[in-house]
Amino acid sequence: MPTAPFNHGVRVVSAGSEARPVSVADVSTIGAAVIAPDADEAVFPPDEPVAFYTHEADKVAALGATGNAVDIVNAVRAQGIEARMVVVRVEEGADDEGTMTNLVGSAASMSGVHALSYALGHVGVEPDILLAPGYSAGRVAAAKNPVADALEQVSAKLKALAVFDTGGTDLATSLAYRADFSSRYTYLVDPFVRVLSGTDIVTKPASPFVGGLIVKKDKAKGGPYWSPSNQEALGVLGTARPITYFDGEIDHEANALNEAGIATFIPSRVVQGVGGQFAQNGRILWGNRTASDDPLWQFINVVRTRATIEKAIVSSFRPWANDENLTAQHVMAVMRSLQTFLDELTAVGATLGGRVYFDRDLNTNASLRSGKLRVEFDAEETPPLEDLIFGSRRNEAYFDTLAEDIQRRISVEFSGTIADYLSA
Fold first, then answer.
1. 135, 114, 154: which is closest to 205 by C-alpha?
2. What's the rounded Cα separation, in Å, for the pair 100 and 120?
3. Which residues contact 226 (CB under 8 A, 6 or more apart)?
4. CA 142 – CA 214 distance, rounded (Å)
5. Is the CB of residue 351 less than 8 Å from the CB of residue 304?
6. How far is the C-alpha of 264 from the C-alpha of 239, rounded, in Å?
7. Please, which pLDDT band fits residue 215 given cuts at 50, 70 and 90?
8. CB of 204 closer than 8 Å to CB of 195
9. What one-character DSSP code corresponds to residue 23?
10. Rounded CA gap, 96 and 93, in Å?
11. How far apart are the first and last CA of the chain?
12. For residue 262, what are the β-bridge partners?
C-alpha cells in the first residue's frame, strides 16, 4: 500500500468517519449576582463565580442570613426541587446607588454581573437562568435599569434567559419598564410577591420564584422545551398588588401584561371583596412571552429550545469533526449526526420537525479548497398553546335525532309506527 509506511506484520488503522451523538448539557443552572453582607469571603470571594447545589448546607450557610442570596435558595427549594447555582457575590455599597454600581461592575474587568460570563471556564458550569433580584427592578432616574441592562448583556452573550421584575406599582409603571427591553433572552414578571419572613408577611421580588419554576418544569419534562407558565409558585402567599383576571375574558390586567410581554400571577380561583375589589391571591405564573420585538422569538420555550440546539452543536462537533480530512464520508457523518439530533428533538415534542441539507451554492470550490464546509439545517420549535379557542354553534339538525328517538319509542310502546296509525 503505497500511501502507508512499510510494515512487516499486522496493524490496525482508523478508517472512515462515523456519526456521533450530539450531547445537550444541563441548561437549568441559575446564575445570580447577589448581595450577601454576612457571607464567608473565603467561600464566596467578591466578584468571583462560585458554583454549588441548593442542598449543600455548608455553602448555603456560608452565604449568611442577610441579603438577597438566601432568598433565591429559599424560593427555588420552595418548589420542591434542588438546583445548581452559580453565584457572584458583590460588595454592598455605601448606599443603594453604590450597590447598583458594584452589581453592574465592568465587562472589561469581568466584575459584577459580568463575572457570570466566565463561569464556565472558572467553575466548569455555565448559568442559563440569570437573576439579580430587587436591584434589577424598576427604572432609575427615568432611564433603563443599569443592573438589568448589564445582566441583559451577559444573557445575550451566553444565550441564557434573564428574568427581571418590573417593580411596577401599577400597570402604567410596569409598561414603562417593559419599553426598555427588546431582547429575546429577557423574561419580565410583575408584580412583586408576598412571602413569609420569620413571623411577618413581606414583599419580595418574584424573579427567584420564576427561576425556580423554570427549573422545575425543565426537570419535570426533561429539558427547556416547555413554557414555565401555568404552574403554581409554592412559597408565594399572594401578590404585592391585585392583578385582575377572568377566565374567558380578555379585558383584564393579566391579559394586558401578557400582551405586552410581561408575565404575572393569577389566582386559581377569583376572589372579590366588598365593592368587587380583587384579592391579592395570585400564585400561578401566567405568561409565555419574552421581551423580543421579533414575533419569531416571542415565546420563552422557543427561544430556549433554539439556544439549546445552537449551543449543543457548537460543543458537540468540535472534538471530533474539525481537522479531519474534508471527504464526502466525513461530511455525511457530520450531517447524519445533526439529523439524528433534530429527529430526537421532534420525537420528544421539542420541535415540529428539522432537516439537514447541503447547499452547493454556499459551498463553492474556493471555500471547499480553503477547508470550509457549510451545513444548513432548519427546525421549527413547538409553540405553547397560548390561546385556546372553542367555536360555539347551534345545529337544528339534532332535532332529527330527537324525532327519530321519539318514533322509535312510540313503535315499542304502542306496537306500531305513526304510518300504521295514519293508514288505519
1. 135
2. 24
3. 217, 218, 301, 384
4. 31
5. no
6. 9
7. very high
8. yes
9. P
10. 7
11. 106
12. 188
